[in-house]
Amino acid sequence: MTDPTPLPPTEVMPSVVQAGLRGLCPRCGKPTLFAKAIKFADRCSACGLDFTQFNVGDGPAAFLTLILGTIVVIGAIMLELTLHPPLWLHMLIWIPVTLAGVIWSLRLAKGALMSAEFRNAAREGRIDPRP
Ligand SMILES: [Zn+2]
Question: Where do the structural domains in the chain lie, given as residue ranges?
């Protein structure tokens, strides 16, 4: 087991954006962050960083639901008003677009938040002892 302590930024460590876009480990930069589509792996298979010590919570899901829902609804309304396609065509278009958008945006947001937590050594509920 390796030391889970965050290290100062190095040239190996990916940026927050790179980690989010490509699912990179925030410490070693290898694409090991996700075990499944939107589920984090327990630890990095390359450097051993324990991903379970970080908690990105449900913040990304709630925020992305509002953004993605708005985009999909606006697209569906614009398609309906311009081409008047049948209902089955709307479903054929918007269900896969929504699923792909949810998976892609959740991976992006969760990966970026995990990387930001690692870089800033964020932990739950610490009280600063300084006066
Ligand atoms: Zn790693």
Answer: 16-119
Give the distance (Å) from ligand 1 centre to CA of residue 104. 21
* Residue 131 to residue 120: CA distance in whole angstroms: 22
Q: Full-prediction pTM beyond 0.90?
A: no
Residue 1 has pLDDT above 50, yes or no: no
Cα(119) to ligand 1 centroid in Å equals 13
The rounded Å distance from CA 33 to ligand 1 centre is: 8
Per-residue pLDDT band for 5 (boundaries 50, 70, 90) equals: low
- The 10 Å Cβ neighbour count of residue 55 is 11
Cα(65) to centroid(ligand 1), Å: 29
Q: What is the rounded distance in angstroms from the CA atom of residue 87 to the CA atom of residue 80?
A: 9
Q: What is the pLDDT of residue 65?
A: 86
